[in-house]
């Protein structure tokens, strides 16, 4: 009977270790699954985000939000290799391409870690659901400084 409990405890312990996600190297090829044409809904409208495959030590994307059949705003985004890590950077533009940030300003999201199904940056997380679906969680600060995490569910 003691042997039975020992085996049971050992197998449960092994199972829980197998469940832990392995942290991958901070390399673009480990997040290539982000690439593609993604569509979803957020902020009361339709969203579209197009990510390139990794090349030239970077991935690039364009994003747009459409409300009432009109573009509300655009974003240009990059994820680039920076020394031994990755950083996601973006800039916002009104529907007439006037920039929100100053000329030399970007909004930066340093990498925290990568797993087989997640790319976790400070303030933004990409989560692979399957080859044709992902969630993007973005921390957005309101005028009072309160942070709200907004979920974007995308499908190819």
UniProtKB/TrEMBL annotation:
It holds the Pfam family DUF6265. Residues 32-139 form the DUF6265 domain. It comes from the Bacteria. The keyword Signal applies. Keywords: Signal. Residues 1-18 form the signal peptide. This is DUF6265 domain-containing protein. It comes from Aestuariibaculum marinum.
């Amino acid at each position: 009977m003691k042997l039975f409990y020992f085996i049971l405890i050992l197998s449960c312990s092994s199972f829980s270790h197998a469940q832990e996600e392995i942290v991958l190297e901070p390399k673009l090829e480990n997040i290539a699954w982000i690439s593609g044409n993604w569509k979803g809904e957020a902020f009361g409208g339709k969203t579209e985000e197009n990510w390139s495959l990794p090349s030239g030590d970077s991935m690039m994307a364009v994003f747009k939000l459409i409300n009432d059949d009109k573009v509300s705003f655009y974003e240009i985004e990059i994820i680039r290799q920076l020394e031994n890590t990755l950083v996601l950077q973006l800039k916002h533009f009104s529907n007439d391409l006037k920039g929100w940030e100053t000329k030399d300003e970007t909004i930066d999201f340093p990498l925290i870690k990568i797993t087989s199904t997640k790319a976790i940056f400070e303030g933004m997380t990409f989560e692979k659901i399957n080859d044709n679906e992902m969630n993007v969680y973005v921390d957005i600060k309101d005028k009072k400084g309160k942070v709200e995490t907004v979920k974007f569910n995308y499908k190819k």
